[in-house]
User: Which sequence fits this backbone?
Protein backbone atom coordinates (compact mmCIF):
# COMPACT_ATOMS: atom_id res chain seq x y z
CA UNK A 1 0.00 0.00 0.00
CA UNK A 2 0.97 3.68 -0.15
CA UNK A 3 2.07 3.83 3.50
CA UNK A 4 4.51 0.98 2.91
CA UNK A 5 5.84 2.64 -0.26
CA UNK A 6 6.36 5.94 1.57
CA UNK A 7 8.80 4.25 3.95
CA UNK A 8 10.94 2.76 1.18
CA UNK A 9 12.74 6.00 0.27
CA UNK A 10 13.90 8.91 2.40
CA UNK A 11 11.64 11.93 1.83
CA UNK A 12 14.55 14.39 1.72
CA UNK A 13 17.35 12.52 -0.05
CA UNK A 14 15.12 10.07 -1.99
CA UNK A 15 17.64 7.34 -1.14
CA UNK A 16 16.52 3.77 -0.62
CA UNK A 17 16.30 3.07 3.10
CA UNK A 18 14.15 -0.08 3.36
CA UNK A 19 15.28 -2.81 0.96
CA UNK A 20 12.79 -5.40 2.25
CA UNK A 21 9.79 -3.12 1.69
CA UNK A 22 11.15 -2.27 -1.75
CA UNK A 23 11.32 -5.96 -2.69
CA UNK A 24 7.84 -6.70 -1.30
CA UNK A 25 6.32 -3.74 -3.16
CA UNK A 26 7.99 -4.84 -6.39
CA UNK A 27 6.62 -8.34 -5.99
CA UNK A 28 3.13 -7.00 -5.28
CA UNK A 29 3.08 -5.05 -8.54
CA UNK A 30 4.43 -7.89 -10.68
CA UNK A 31 2.17 -9.40 -13.32
CA UNK A 32 2.27 -12.84 -11.70
CA UNK A 33 0.86 -11.37 -8.48
CA UNK A 34 -1.74 -9.00 -9.91
CA UNK A 35 -3.89 -11.83 -11.30
CA UNK A 36 -4.48 -10.13 -14.64
CA UNK A 37 -3.47 -13.00 -16.91
CA UNK A 38 -5.74 -15.49 -18.63
CA UNK A 39 -4.42 -19.05 -18.05
CA UNK A 40 -3.29 -20.61 -21.30
CA UNK A 41 -5.13 -23.89 -20.71
CA UNK A 42 -8.42 -22.10 -20.13
CA UNK A 43 -7.97 -19.96 -23.22
CA UNK A 44 -7.35 -23.08 -25.31
CA UNK A 45 -10.44 -24.79 -23.88
CA UNK A 46 -12.57 -21.73 -24.58
CA UNK A 47 -11.34 -21.56 -28.16
CA UNK A 48 -11.71 -25.18 -29.09
CA UNK A 49 -13.33 -27.20 -26.32
CA UNK A 50 -11.44 -30.26 -25.17
CA UNK A 51 -7.84 -30.16 -26.27
CA UNK A 52 -6.88 -32.40 -29.16
CA UNK A 53 -3.83 -34.61 -28.68
CA UNK A 54 -1.25 -34.49 -31.44
CA UNK A 55 1.77 -36.65 -32.22
CA UNK A 56 4.22 -33.79 -31.81
CA UNK A 57 7.36 -33.64 -33.91
CA UNK A 58 10.41 -33.28 -31.72
CA UNK A 59 12.17 -30.12 -32.84
CA UNK A 60 15.13 -30.02 -30.48
CA UNK A 61 17.57 -31.40 -33.04
CA UNK A 62 17.33 -28.30 -35.22
CA UNK A 63 16.23 -25.80 -32.56
CA UNK A 64 17.72 -25.18 -29.13
CA UNK A 65 15.62 -26.08 -26.08
CA UNK A 66 14.42 -22.51 -25.59
CA UNK A 67 13.26 -22.05 -29.17
CA UNK A 68 11.69 -25.51 -29.32
CA UNK A 69 9.66 -24.77 -26.17
CA UNK A 70 8.49 -21.41 -27.53
CA UNK A 71 7.57 -22.69 -30.98
CA UNK A 72 5.57 -25.70 -29.82
CA UNK A 73 3.57 -23.76 -27.21
CA UNK A 74 2.84 -20.76 -29.40
CA UNK A 75 1.98 -22.76 -32.51
CA UNK A 76 -0.62 -24.75 -30.58
CA UNK A 77 -2.35 -21.53 -29.53
CA UNK A 78 -2.16 -20.09 -33.05
CA UNK A 79 -3.73 -23.27 -34.42
CA UNK A 80 -6.64 -22.92 -31.99
CA UNK A 81 -7.20 -19.27 -32.88
CA UNK A 82 -7.05 -19.98 -36.61
CA UNK A 83 -9.53 -22.83 -36.30
CA UNK A 84 -11.90 -20.58 -34.40
CA UNK A 85 -12.00 -18.20 -37.38
CA UNK A 86 -11.61 -20.97 -39.97
CA UNK A 87 -8.43 -19.28 -41.21
CA UNK A 88 -5.67 -20.97 -43.23
CA UNK A 89 -3.23 -18.05 -43.55
CA UNK A 90 -0.73 -16.86 -40.94
CA UNK A 91 1.54 -13.80 -41.09
CA UNK A 92 4.66 -14.08 -38.92
CA UNK A 93 6.13 -10.62 -38.24
CA UNK A 94 9.84 -10.58 -37.45
CA UNK A 95 10.08 -14.23 -38.46
CA UNK A 96 13.86 -14.44 -38.19
CA UNK A 97 15.16 -17.79 -39.41
CA UNK A 98 11.64 -19.12 -39.76
CA UNK A 99 11.44 -21.59 -36.89
CA UNK A 100 7.85 -20.70 -35.95
CA UNK A 101 6.75 -20.14 -39.56
CA UNK A 102 8.02 -23.48 -40.85
CA UNK A 103 6.58 -25.37 -37.89
CA UNK A 104 3.16 -23.81 -38.40
CA UNK A 105 3.32 -24.77 -42.06
CA UNK A 106 4.63 -28.30 -41.50
CA UNK A 107 2.71 -29.41 -38.49
CA UNK A 108 -0.51 -27.41 -38.80
CA UNK A 109 -0.84 -27.08 -42.58
CA UNK A 110 -1.03 -23.28 -42.71
CA UNK A 111 0.03 -21.03 -45.52
CA UNK A 112 2.57 -18.87 -43.73
CA UNK A 113 4.19 -15.61 -44.76
CA UNK A 114 7.28 -14.94 -42.66
CA UNK A 115 8.33 -11.28 -42.90
CA UNK A 116 11.73 -10.14 -41.64
CA UNK A 117 13.80 -7.05 -42.37
CA UNK A 118 17.04 -9.04 -42.64
CA UNK A 119 18.06 -10.84 -45.81
CA UNK A 120 20.43 -12.87 -43.65
CA UNK A 121 17.52 -14.20 -41.61
CA UNK A 122 15.55 -15.02 -44.74
CA UNK A 123 18.52 -17.05 -45.96
CA UNK A 124 18.65 -18.70 -42.54
CA UNK A 125 15.04 -19.80 -42.96
CA UNK A 126 15.99 -21.72 -46.10
CA UNK A 127 18.98 -23.20 -44.25
CA UNK A 128 16.66 -24.43 -41.53
CA UNK A 129 14.68 -26.32 -44.14
CA UNK A 130 17.90 -27.99 -45.25
CA UNK A 131 18.49 -29.15 -41.69
CA UNK A 132 14.94 -30.42 -41.48
CA UNK A 133 15.49 -32.59 -44.54
CA UNK A 134 18.66 -33.99 -42.97
CA UNK A 135 16.90 -35.03 -39.76
CA UNK A 136 13.44 -35.94 -40.95
CA UNK A 137 14.04 -39.68 -41.40
CA UNK A 138 15.06 -39.86 -37.76
CA UNK A 139 11.97 -37.89 -36.71
CA UNK A 140 9.71 -40.24 -38.65
CA UNK A 141 11.32 -43.32 -37.13
CA UNK A 142 11.14 -41.91 -33.61
CA UNK A 143 7.51 -40.83 -34.04
CA UNK A 144 6.56 -44.36 -35.10
CA UNK A 145 8.37 -45.85 -32.13
CA UNK A 146 6.74 -43.40 -29.70
CA UNK A 147 3.32 -44.12 -31.19
CA UNK A 148 3.64 -47.88 -30.75
CA UNK A 149 5.05 -47.46 -27.24
CA UNK A 150 2.12 -45.25 -26.29
CA UNK A 151 -0.41 -47.80 -27.53
CA UNK A 152 1.30 -50.61 -25.63
CA UNK A 153 1.22 -48.54 -22.43
CA UNK A 154 -2.50 -47.93 -22.89
CA UNK A 155 -3.10 -51.65 -23.26
CA UNK A 156 -1.02 -52.50 -20.19
CA UNK A 157 -2.53 -49.79 -18.02
CA UNK A 158 -6.11 -50.93 -18.46
CA UNK A 159 -7.46 -53.98 -20.32
CA UNK A 160 -10.97 -52.61 -20.03
CA UNK A 161 -10.00 -49.44 -21.84
CA UNK A 162 -10.63 -50.69 -25.34
CA UNK A 163 -11.89 -47.44 -26.76
CA UNK A 164 -9.92 -44.26 -27.39
CA UNK A 165 -10.56 -40.92 -28.96
CA UNK A 166 -9.91 -40.31 -32.60
CA UNK A 167 -6.94 -38.05 -33.18
CA UNK A 168 -8.90 -35.73 -35.39
CA UNK A 169 -12.30 -35.20 -36.91
CA UNK A 170 -12.37 -33.19 -40.10
CA UNK A 171 -16.02 -32.27 -39.56
CA UNK A 172 -15.37 -30.89 -36.09
CA UNK A 173 -14.76 -27.19 -35.44
CA UNK A 174 -13.29 -26.11 -32.09
CA UNK A 175 -15.66 -23.16 -31.75
CA UNK A 176 -18.89 -22.32 -33.47
CA UNK A 177 -18.26 -19.23 -35.55
CA UNK A 178 -21.90 -18.30 -35.05
CA UNK A 179 -21.24 -17.81 -31.34
CA UNK A 180 -20.21 -14.21 -31.98
CA UNK A 181 -17.86 -12.35 -29.67
CA UNK A 182 -19.88 -9.17 -29.63
CA UNK A 183 -17.90 -6.99 -27.27
CA UNK A 184 -15.04 -6.93 -24.85
CA UNK A 185 -17.46 -6.39 -22.02
CA UNK A 186 -19.13 -9.73 -22.74
CA UNK A 187 -15.83 -11.55 -22.52
CA UNK A 188 -14.70 -11.49 -18.92
CA UNK A 189 -12.33 -13.23 -16.59
CA UNK A 190 -13.98 -14.11 -13.29
CA UNK A 191 -12.24 -14.34 -9.91
CA UNK A 192 -11.46 -17.99 -10.58
CA UNK A 193 -9.54 -16.94 -13.66
CA UNK A 194 -11.89 -18.80 -15.98
CA UNK A 195 -12.14 -17.38 -19.49
CA UNK A 196 -15.92 -17.59 -19.66
CA UNK A 197 -17.76 -15.75 -22.37
CA UNK A 198 -16.27 -17.27 -25.52
CA UNK A 199 -18.97 -19.74 -26.34
CA UNK A 200 -17.88 -23.24 -27.33
CA UNK A 201 -19.68 -25.13 -30.06
CA UNK A 202 -21.35 -28.48 -30.01
CA UNK A 203 -18.57 -30.84 -30.99
CA UNK A 204 -19.30 -33.92 -33.02
CA UNK A 205 -19.24 -37.20 -31.14
CA UNK A 206 -15.83 -38.87 -31.18
CA UNK A 207 -15.67 -42.19 -32.92
CA UNK A 208 -14.93 -45.23 -30.77
CA UNK A 209 -12.73 -47.83 -32.37
CA UNK A 210 -10.56 -50.75 -31.29
CA UNK A 211 -6.98 -50.08 -30.21
CA UNK A 212 -5.43 -52.13 -32.97
CA UNK A 213 -7.46 -50.42 -35.66
CA UNK A 214 -6.58 -47.01 -34.18
CA UNK A 215 -2.88 -47.81 -34.21
CA UNK A 216 -3.09 -48.72 -37.88
CA UNK A 217 -5.01 -45.53 -38.61
CA UNK A 218 -2.46 -43.42 -36.75
CA UNK A 219 0.41 -44.99 -38.68
CA UNK A 220 -1.34 -44.24 -41.95
CA UNK A 221 -1.87 -40.68 -40.78
CA UNK A 222 1.80 -40.42 -39.89
CA UNK A 223 2.79 -41.53 -43.38
CA UNK A 224 0.57 -38.80 -44.82
CA UNK A 225 2.20 -36.26 -42.51
CA UNK A 226 5.61 -37.28 -43.83
CA UNK A 227 4.54 -36.27 -47.33
CA UNK A 228 2.94 -33.11 -46.00
CA UNK A 229 6.20 -31.96 -44.43
CA UNK A 230 8.27 -32.89 -47.45
CA UNK A 231 5.86 -30.98 -49.66
CA UNK A 232 6.66 -27.62 -48.09
CA UNK A 233 10.39 -27.81 -48.68
CA UNK A 234 12.03 -26.29 -51.77
CA UNK A 235 12.16 -28.62 -54.77
CA UNK A 236 15.95 -28.84 -54.66
CA UNK A 237 15.94 -29.74 -50.97
CA UNK A 238 13.62 -32.72 -51.08
CA UNK A 239 14.15 -36.34 -51.95
CA UNK A 240 10.83 -38.17 -52.05
CA UNK A 241 11.40 -41.43 -50.26
CA UNK A 242 9.37 -44.47 -49.36
CA UNK A 243 8.14 -44.40 -45.78
CA UNK A 244 7.02 -48.02 -45.78
CA UNK A 245 9.51 -50.41 -47.37
CA UNK A 246 8.39 -53.21 -49.67
CA UNK A 247 9.08 -56.64 -48.22
CA UNK A 248 10.41 -58.20 -51.45
CA UNK A 249 13.73 -57.48 -53.16
CA UNK A 250 12.16 -56.01 -56.29
CA UNK A 251 9.62 -53.23 -56.06
CA UNK A 252 6.16 -54.45 -56.95
CA UNK A 253 3.92 -52.62 -59.42
CA UNK A 254 1.63 -51.43 -56.64
CA UNK A 255 4.57 -49.87 -54.81
CA UNK A 256 5.80 -48.18 -57.99
CA UNK A 257 2.35 -46.70 -58.53
CA UNK A 258 2.25 -45.49 -54.90
CA UNK A 259 5.63 -43.79 -55.25
CA UNK A 260 4.59 -42.10 -58.47
CA UNK A 261 1.42 -40.81 -56.82
CA UNK A 262 3.43 -39.48 -53.87
CA UNK A 263 5.73 -37.61 -56.24
CA UNK A 264 2.77 -36.08 -58.08
CA UNK A 265 1.19 -35.04 -54.79
CA UNK A 266 4.42 -33.33 -53.74
CA UNK A 267 4.59 -31.35 -56.99
CA UNK A 268 0.92 -30.42 -56.89
CA UNK A 269 1.19 -29.15 -53.34
CA UNK A 270 3.58 -26.39 -54.41
CA UNK A 271 0.65 -24.47 -55.88
CA UNK A 272 -1.85 -25.29 -53.13
CA UNK A 273 -3.23 -22.78 -50.68
CA UNK A 274 -1.90 -24.52 -47.56
CA UNK A 275 1.24 -26.31 -46.45
CA UNK A 276 3.44 -23.50 -47.77
CA UNK A 277 5.96 -21.18 -46.17
CA UNK A 278 7.10 -17.98 -47.88
CA UNK A 279 10.02 -16.09 -46.30
CA UNK A 280 9.81 -12.41 -47.30
CA UNK A 281 12.17 -9.52 -46.64
CA UNK A 282 10.58 -6.19 -45.71
CA UNK A 283 10.89 -3.52 -43.04
CA UNK A 284 7.61 -3.30 -41.10
CA UNK A 285 6.21 -0.10 -39.63
CA UNK A 286 2.77 0.87 -38.33
CA UNK A 287 1.97 2.28 -41.79
CA UNK A 288 3.03 -0.81 -43.74
CA UNK A 289 0.52 -1.92 -46.37
CA UNK A 290 0.48 -5.69 -46.15
CA UNK A 291 -1.21 -5.98 -49.54
CA UNK A 292 1.93 -4.50 -51.10
CA UNK A 293 3.99 -7.33 -49.62
CA UNK A 294 1.50 -10.19 -49.78
CA UNK A 295 -0.24 -10.29 -53.13
CA UNK A 296 -2.94 -12.79 -52.09
CA UNK A 297 -3.66 -11.36 -48.64
CA UNK A 298 -6.66 -13.10 -47.10
CA UNK A 299 -8.15 -13.40 -43.63
CA UNK A 300 -5.14 -14.10 -41.43
CA UNK A 301 -3.79 -14.51 -37.93
CA UNK A 302 -0.85 -12.19 -37.27
CA UNK A 303 1.83 -13.50 -34.94
CA UNK A 304 5.14 -12.30 -33.58
CA UNK A 305 7.51 -14.36 -31.45
CA UNK A 306 9.86 -12.00 -29.60
CA UNK A 307 9.38 -9.05 -31.90
CA UNK A 308 12.06 -6.52 -31.09
CA UNK A 309 11.53 -2.98 -29.83
CA UNK A 310 8.87 -1.02 -31.76
CA UNK A 311 7.98 -4.00 -33.92
CA UNK A 312 5.75 -5.40 -31.16
CA UNK A 313 3.53 -2.29 -30.77
CA UNK A 314 3.51 -1.81 -34.55
CA UNK A 315 2.24 -5.38 -34.92
CA UNK A 316 -0.72 -4.47 -32.70
CA UNK A 317 -1.38 -1.29 -34.69
CA UNK A 318 -1.41 -3.18 -37.97
CA UNK A 319 -3.78 -5.72 -36.43
CA UNK A 320 -6.30 -3.08 -35.37
CA UNK A 321 -6.09 -1.22 -38.71
CA UNK A 322 -6.30 -4.06 -41.25
CA UNK A 323 -9.67 -5.81 -41.61
CA UNK A 324 -8.01 -8.95 -43.01
CA UNK A 325 -6.17 -9.56 -39.72
CA UNK A 326 -8.71 -11.32 -37.52
CA UNK A 327 -6.50 -12.13 -34.55
CA UNK A 328 -3.06 -11.38 -33.15
CA UNK A 329 -0.66 -13.26 -30.89
CA UNK A 330 2.31 -11.06 -29.99
CA UNK A 331 5.26 -11.68 -27.67
CA UNK A 332 7.61 -8.70 -27.53
CA UNK A 333 11.19 -8.32 -26.35
CA UNK A 334 14.08 -5.81 -26.30
CA UNK A 335 12.18 -3.16 -24.37
CA UNK A 336 15.33 -1.00 -24.28
CA UNK A 337 14.94 -0.44 -28.04
CA UNK A 338 11.43 1.03 -27.73
CA UNK A 339 10.98 4.61 -28.84
CA UNK A 340 9.31 6.87 -26.25
CA UNK A 341 7.15 9.84 -27.08
CA UNK A 342 7.98 11.83 -23.95
CA UNK A 343 11.66 10.89 -23.71
CA UNK A 344 12.68 12.96 -26.75
CA UNK A 345 10.74 16.19 -26.60
CA UNK A 346 12.38 17.61 -29.73
CA UNK A 347 11.01 14.85 -31.99
CA UNK A 348 7.50 15.17 -33.42
CA UNK A 349 5.14 13.45 -35.85
CA UNK A 350 6.20 9.89 -35.15
CA UNK A 351 4.43 6.69 -34.18
CA UNK A 352 5.99 5.79 -30.85
CA UNK A 353 6.55 2.44 -29.23
CA UNK A 354 5.56 3.78 -25.79
CA UNK A 355 3.07 4.80 -24.63
CA UNK A 356 0.32 3.33 -26.79
CA UNK A 357 -2.82 3.78 -24.70
CA UNK A 358 -4.58 7.10 -24.36
CA UNK A 359 -4.40 7.14 -20.54
CA UNK A 360 -0.59 7.10 -20.41
CA UNK A 361 -0.44 9.57 -23.29
CA UNK A 362 -2.63 11.98 -21.34
CA UNK A 363 -0.36 11.51 -18.33
CA UNK A 364 2.74 12.16 -20.43
CA UNK A 365 4.29 8.99 -19.04
CA UNK A 366 7.95 8.23 -19.64
CA UNK A 367 10.02 5.24 -18.56
CA UNK A 368 13.46 6.20 -19.82
CA UNK A 369 16.14 3.95 -21.28
CA UNK A 370 17.54 2.80 -17.93
CA UNK A 371 14.15 1.57 -16.78
CA UNK A 372 13.51 -0.17 -20.10
CA UNK A 373 16.93 -1.81 -19.89
CA UNK A 374 15.98 -3.10 -16.44
CA UNK A 375 12.72 -4.53 -17.80
CA UNK A 376 14.80 -6.88 -19.96
CA UNK A 377 16.36 -8.58 -16.93
CA UNK A 378 15.25 -12.09 -15.92
CA UNK A 379 14.22 -12.34 -12.26
CA UNK A 380 13.16 -15.99 -12.54
CA UNK A 381 16.56 -17.02 -13.91
CA UNK A 382 18.38 -15.21 -11.12
CA UNK A 383 16.05 -16.88 -8.60
CA UNK A 384 17.20 -20.35 -9.73
CA UNK A 385 20.87 -19.47 -9.55
CA UNK A 386 21.61 -18.08 -13.03
CA UNK A 387 23.37 -15.03 -11.68
CA UNK A 388 24.11 -11.78 -13.46
CA UNK A 389 27.50 -11.43 -15.19
CA UNK A 390 28.86 -9.14 -12.49
CA UNK A 391 32.48 -9.09 -13.67
CA UNK A 392 31.62 -8.12 -17.25
CA UNK A 393 29.25 -5.43 -15.99
CA UNK A 394 32.04 -4.13 -13.75
CA UNK A 395 34.46 -4.01 -16.70
CA UNK A 396 31.91 -2.09 -18.74
CA UNK A 397 31.23 0.41 -15.93
CA UNK A 398 34.94 1.18 -15.38
CA UNK A 399 35.47 1.44 -19.15
CA UNK A 400 32.83 4.16 -19.28
CA UNK A 401 34.66 6.13 -16.60
CA UNK A 402 37.94 5.78 -18.53
CA UNK A 403 36.36 7.00 -21.79
CA UNK A 404 34.60 9.97 -20.17
CA UNK A 405 37.65 11.16 -18.21
CA UNK A 406 40.28 10.62 -20.90
CA UNK A 407 38.42 11.17 -24.17
CA UNK A 408 35.54 13.43 -23.15
CA UNK A 409 33.01 11.08 -24.76
CA UNK A 410 29.68 10.77 -22.94
CA UNK A 411 27.54 9.45 -25.81
CA UNK A 412 28.40 7.41 -28.86
CA UNK A 413 26.61 5.51 -31.61
CA UNK A 414 29.28 2.82 -31.44
CA UNK A 415 28.86 -0.24 -29.21
CA UNK A 416 31.45 -2.29 -27.38
CA UNK A 417 29.52 -5.51 -27.92
CA UNK A 418 30.56 -8.92 -26.61
CA UNK A 419 34.24 -8.19 -26.08
CA UNK A 420 34.41 -9.51 -22.49
CA UNK A 421 34.27 -13.16 -23.56
CA UNK A 422 37.10 -12.55 -26.03
CA UNK A 423 39.37 -10.76 -23.55
CA UNK A 424 42.06 -12.36 -21.39
CA UNK A 425 42.15 -9.58 -18.78
CA UNK A 426 40.80 -6.17 -17.87
CA UNK A 427 43.71 -4.56 -19.68
CA UNK A 428 43.01 -6.57 -22.82
CA UNK A 429 39.30 -5.71 -22.54
CA UNK A 430 39.98 -1.96 -22.40
CA UNK A 431 42.42 -2.05 -25.32
CA UNK A 432 40.02 -3.97 -27.56
CA UNK A 433 37.07 -1.77 -26.55
CA UNK A 434 38.92 1.48 -27.29
CA UNK A 435 39.89 0.21 -30.74
CA UNK A 436 36.33 -0.80 -31.48
CA UNK A 437 35.18 2.65 -30.40
CA UNK A 438 37.84 4.07 -32.76
CA UNK A 439 39.62 5.84 -29.90
CA UNK A 440 43.41 6.09 -29.70
CA UNK A 441 44.39 3.52 -27.07
CA UNK A 442 48.06 4.58 -27.23
CA UNK A 443 47.01 7.62 -25.24
CA UNK A 444 46.75 5.41 -22.14
CA UNK A 445 49.57 3.38 -20.60
CA UNK A 446 48.99 -0.06 -19.13
CA UNK A 447 49.61 1.28 -15.63
CA UNK A 448 47.07 4.05 -16.13
CA UNK A 449 44.41 1.56 -17.17
CA UNK A 450 45.14 -0.77 -14.23
CA UNK A 451 45.02 2.18 -11.83
CA UNK A 452 41.34 2.56 -12.72
CA UNK A 453 40.78 -1.12 -12.03
CA UNK A 454 42.44 -0.90 -8.61
CA UNK A 455 40.49 2.25 -7.76
CA UNK A 456 37.07 0.70 -8.35
CA UNK A 457 37.52 -3.03 -7.71
CA UNK A 458 36.34 -2.73 -4.10
CA UNK A 459 33.02 -1.40 -5.38
CA UNK A 460 32.23 -4.54 -7.40
CA UNK A 461 29.98 -5.83 -4.61
CA UNK A 462 28.19 -2.50 -4.59
CA UNK A 463 27.59 -2.82 -8.33
CA UNK A 464 26.25 -6.35 -7.87
CA UNK A 465 23.81 -5.19 -5.16
CA UNK A 466 22.61 -2.34 -7.38
CA UNK A 467 22.00 -4.70 -10.30
CA UNK A 468 20.10 -7.11 -8.05
CA UNK A 469 17.76 -4.25 -7.09
CA UNK A 470 17.23 -3.63 -10.82
CA UNK A 471 16.37 -7.32 -11.27
CA UNK A 472 13.80 -7.14 -8.47
CA UNK A 473 12.19 -4.09 -10.08
CA UNK A 474 12.25 -5.54 -13.63
CA UNK A 475 8.79 -7.25 -13.52
CA UNK A 476 7.12 -3.99 -12.46
CA UNK A 477 8.48 -2.10 -15.45
CA UNK A 478 7.53 -4.94 -17.78
CA UNK A 479 3.99 -4.81 -16.36
CA UNK A 480 3.73 -1.14 -17.26
CA UNK A 481 4.79 -1.79 -20.86
CA UNK A 482 2.54 -4.81 -21.34
CA UNK A 483 -0.53 -3.23 -19.73
CA UNK A 484 -0.04 -0.14 -21.90
CA UNK A 485 -0.33 -2.40 -24.97
CA UNK A 486 -3.32 -4.24 -23.55
CA UNK A 487 -5.12 -0.99 -22.69
CA UNK A 488 -4.53 0.20 -26.26
CA UNK A 489 -6.38 -2.87 -27.51
CA UNK A 490 -9.18 -2.35 -24.99
CA UNK A 491 -9.69 1.13 -26.42
CA UNK A 492 -10.46 -0.24 -29.90
CA UNK A 493 -14.08 -0.73 -30.95
CA UNK A 494 -13.48 -3.68 -33.27
CA UNK A 495 -11.90 -6.01 -30.67
CA UNK A 496 -14.07 -8.77 -29.21
CA UNK A 497 -11.55 -9.95 -26.63
CA UNK A 498 -7.99 -9.17 -25.61
CA UNK A 499 -5.82 -10.40 -22.79
CA UNK A 500 -2.40 -11.25 -21.42
CA UNK A 501 -1.40 -14.92 -21.38
CA UNK A 502 1.67 -16.48 -19.82
CA UNK A 503 2.83 -18.73 -22.65
CA UNK A 504 6.31 -19.90 -21.68
CA UNK A 505 8.35 -21.11 -18.76
CA UNK A 506 10.07 -17.86 -17.63
CA UNK A 507 13.29 -19.69 -16.78
CA UNK A 508 13.53 -21.05 -20.32
CA UNK A 509 12.15 -17.90 -21.93
CA UNK A 510 12.10 -14.77 -19.71
CA UNK A 511 9.90 -12.76 -22.10
CA UNK A 512 7.08 -15.22 -21.55
CA UNK A 513 3.89 -13.12 -21.79
CA UNK A 514 1.81 -12.96 -24.95
CA UNK A 515 -0.78 -10.35 -25.88
CA UNK A 516 -3.72 -12.07 -27.57
CA UNK A 517 -6.62 -10.29 -29.26
CA UNK A 518 -9.58 -11.45 -31.32
CA UNK A 519 -11.69 -9.23 -33.56
CA UNK A 520 -15.44 -9.16 -33.66
CA UNK A 521 -16.96 -11.35 -36.32
CA UNK A 522 -19.37 -9.79 -38.83
Assistant:
Amino acid sequence: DESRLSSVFCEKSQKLIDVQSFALAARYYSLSNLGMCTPLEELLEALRGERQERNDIKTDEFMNNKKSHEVQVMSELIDSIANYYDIKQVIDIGSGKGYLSSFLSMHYNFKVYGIDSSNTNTHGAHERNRKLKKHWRAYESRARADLKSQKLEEVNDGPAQTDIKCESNTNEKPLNNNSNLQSQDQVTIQDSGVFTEIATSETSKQTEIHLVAQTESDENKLSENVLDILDILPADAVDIFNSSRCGCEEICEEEKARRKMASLQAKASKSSESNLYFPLTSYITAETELSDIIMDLKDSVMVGLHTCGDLAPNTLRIFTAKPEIKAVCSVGCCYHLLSEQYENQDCTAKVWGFPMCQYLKDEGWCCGRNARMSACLALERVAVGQMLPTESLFYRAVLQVIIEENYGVTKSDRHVGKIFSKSSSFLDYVRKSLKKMELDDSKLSDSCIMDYYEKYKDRMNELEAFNMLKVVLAPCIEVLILLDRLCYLKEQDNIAWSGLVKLFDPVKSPRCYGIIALKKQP
